[in-house]
Design goal:
mainly alpha; binds acetyl coenzyme *A; 2% strand; 311 residues
Length: 311
Amino acid sequence: DHTEAQAEFDAQIAAEGRIEPRDWMPEAYRKTLIRQIGQHAHSEIIGMQPEGNWITRAPSLKRKSILMAKVQDEAGHGLYLYSAAETLGIDRSTMTEQLIEGTARYSSIFNYPTPTWADMGAIGWLVDGAAICNQVPLCRASYGPYARAMVRICKEESFHQRQGFEILYELSHGTEAQKAMAQDAVNRWWWPSLMMFGPPDAESPNSAQSMAWKIKRFSNDELRQRFVDMTVPQAEHLGLTLPDPDLKWNEERGHYDFGEIDWTEFKEVLKGRGPCNHLRIANRKSAHENGAWVREAASVYAAKQAQRAAD
Ligand code: ACO
């Protein structure tokens, strides 16, 4: 009986309980989770590309091994998230199809290019910093498998953020040219990082319902503000500036004020017209095609094992 099941679900949410895969849940709750977790998984997988671009050109063996480990962590995050989404009744191959056909969303941030080594620092510091602000509250999301996946992901993201900060610190305390390269990267990544949090609250169609369901715990604008407040003092410590003349401490609000975000740019990127959208999808598609033999070998092996167990 749906009314009774709905009442039980509502009571779980009200009591800060966890919804688990076998529990009854409203179809719209299932759908929004598949949407958000799927997009999140795709972001991790597509997010391997901007940094993968620098693995062969990292400035030292140590930097190279750190970067490789970081990109592998992102692959792992994608896999935990695809698994969490699968508990809701969609399979990974369907999600992958949607991604390579260009019908699934992934974070806008990964459609920007990485022309210099300093971009590795700016991605770690700003992009992973923004990801942490957004994702720490998701460790308390009402859907159990998603919340549990987020715990480990956040620990790894914190480490990534520190390594990005450290890259920029080294550069900004290096030669003039190195410092200029670090500043240029920060100038390019700052505004796109603020866009990661999504549209302003008044234009966020999913927020109210997702907050009522306790999937999201804070609104897009609240988390964006938290990120700005956290990042300004870190920029000072790095000796770098943030490219916003309107950025200043507001004593009354107890927060930093910041300038207007270019939402036209955000919308363009979401429509597939960012600087690297085509490249990201084309790379993902060819990686998928090149991996066909692995999937075939794995399923032939699995079938053989199953046959052996049955004999
Ligand atoms: N990039 C691409 N799409 C976005 C972005 C963004 N930065 N922000 C919002 N959108 C999309 C939403 O997915 C939604 O699209 P849809 O309705 O077609 O599915 C639409 O814009 C409207 O936005 P909201 O109503 O605010 O959507 P939502 O409530 O899902 O909030 C948010 C967006 C904050 C990104 C949320 O989905 C979330 O917290 N996701 C988990 C975190 C995540 O995916 N991080 C990925 C980047 S971090 C990393 O991977 C390192």
